[in-house]
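Sharing in case it's useful to others searching the archive later.

Someone asked me privately for the predicted structure of GGDEF-domain containing protein, so I'm posting the question and my answer publicly. Question first, with the sequence:
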Amino acid sequence: MTPQPRRRPPLTRYFAVVSVVAMLVLGVALATTTTTIMRRQALAQAVEQAQHVEAHLHAALPVDAYRLGLVSEEQRASVGSSLSEFAPRLVGLRLWTVNGEVLYDPSSTEPTGFPDTTRLDAAVRQGRSTADTDVRRAGLRLDVPAADAPAAEAELDVVSVYVPVTYGDQRVGAAEVVLDHSATSATLREGIRTVTLVTITGLVLLWLLLFRVVRTFSSRLQSNALENARLALLDSLTGLPNRRMLRDRLDRAVSAARGDGTGVGLLLLDVDRFKDINDSLGHDRGDVLLEQVARRLEGSLREGDLVARLGGDEFAVLLPDVPSVEDARRLAERVRGVFVAPFDLGEIELHVETSIGVACLPEHAGDASSLMRKADVAMYTAKAHRLGVAVYSPDADDSSPARLVLLGDLHRALERPDEMLMHYQPKVDLSTGLTVGVEALMRWDHPTRGTLGPNLFIPLAEQTGLITTLTRFALVTAIQQVARWRDSGAALPVAVNLSAHNVTSLDVADLIEQLLATYGVPASLLQVEITETALVAAPSRIVPVLDRLQAIGVQVAIDDFGIGNTSISQLRDLPVSQLKIDRLFVQDLSAGRGRPGSAPVVRAMVDLAHSFGLTVVAEGVEDEVTAARLAELGVDQAQGYLYSPAVPADDVAAARTELVADRPPAPAGTAPVVPAPMVPTAAAAPAALAEAAPTGIVASAVPADRRAPGRAVRPT
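And my answer, the predicted structure tokens:
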């Protein structure tokens, strides 16, 4: 049996016990100190009176008596007479010589006895008076009147004082003066009782006051602690459980699921473009939106489900008993449905959307931490690819064990120059059928897994900083290839897709300028591509780099156009020369797969680009029907499997010839597309072709074939 931890006593009880002990100690200390001081004062008074007695003896007893050790009867009578004024407090008196012999004792004519040697020595040798209290019988008789003498044989509180007997500067003996201390003792005891009573009363009152104060504050602290504990588990804005409470409930749900074999689902979601809403409408309305989202989410759940706010615009929904992944996905769709109706933000009705990630236990994870991480991966997959709802997939998880192994292989591959390759895919002018350039795509010749496309390793490189090394490799390799083609007589341009991680720094422009100068390649033969999503993410940092590239003479293209949020004013002002329509729109134009709105959208993009003097390129063209439709819509150039896959530089000409020869005739009724001539290799390149190639080869460290799951990926 596991021992239970000992509970700490309540603060009030703890204070009561500790303070009582402290008060008792303080009371005893005060009483003891006061008693000691009062007793010392009483003894000091006794010493003072004894010294007064000793001074009166000088006239009655000359110094010779001490030297000879003898007292005559006359001297004895004189001593008794001089002491009468000290009765009745003076109880006894003995005079001692420096040798410790009794010189005078009123109780005996032949005095005998022994002194307190320590006190006698202190008086005679050191000249120090000492006093000590005692209880004794009054057996000493002084030569004083009987009426003034204390009752014989009575028990008295006395104080015995040894004082030095001094004549001039010479100490000749000591006087032992015994004084009645009864009255002083009684006064002292009464004073001690009074002081003790006052001390105890004061301490008790102080304790009661402090106890009341502590109990009041303890009660407040307990209330505050309970409130803080409650607030620590709730979001202050929406009142929903927060991340901490979600984690606690998730841990319990996982433990319960392991015991009864049920499943646990977790949905993570955020509000799309919430930052834009905050920036444009203000944070107050953003908070109102979050509160309304919270209320709608609570209303959409099953009994037993939990909705929590994790921070910002991110929410979580815990499904503690979900039979399957499909059931969790359906619940996610239901949650997504609460965003259909507009949100009322006072004078504004706002339509917002959400991206939801779904992960389940045991299908995707075995513990709470892993389940949260994988739901987060799924949410960002849904957000990045506008899927609305995305179920966790290992393919999208950059932190899966397989990806980590691949990352280690990538580090080693960058140290081996023969593993990283560049393949090239032609771009064709749709109006003439001429090949006007190529796009170079990176490949990894993995020693055990074969040739890998960039969609498998570029995300890893972007996350770890290796993208800079890969970008440099792509630029160097592509520009070297352009130089070879140019030296062989073909001035073929090349375009390089840059990662968002590189295009925010002017270093990449400096590198390009340096490489062009090193290999003697004109800037007009190089084009760079950036994705629209990268441009929208950080326009203030990217545009200066594009301006610098334009100043160098390098052309710029926007890749994957149509899936970002570029405004018309942004497009008008950007230093770009080309738009590449995202392959999603191209696929929608394919026979039997088209959607009614795809062609008008493509037409609108083409007209917009042409109005700004931009060339339009369609990628992912795989059949004649699509090519003909694109030509009708005014698209300028195309690339895809219809013309050639990406192949090594030395195989570009052969691959192009085979594809043109083997391509089936266009279906009846479609616009013919003029076959594109062969792209020259480094061995042979007609000069005429160089003149007919106004745009270039595209070499990229960030592949154009990275697409969301479910969308076509450019073949390797």
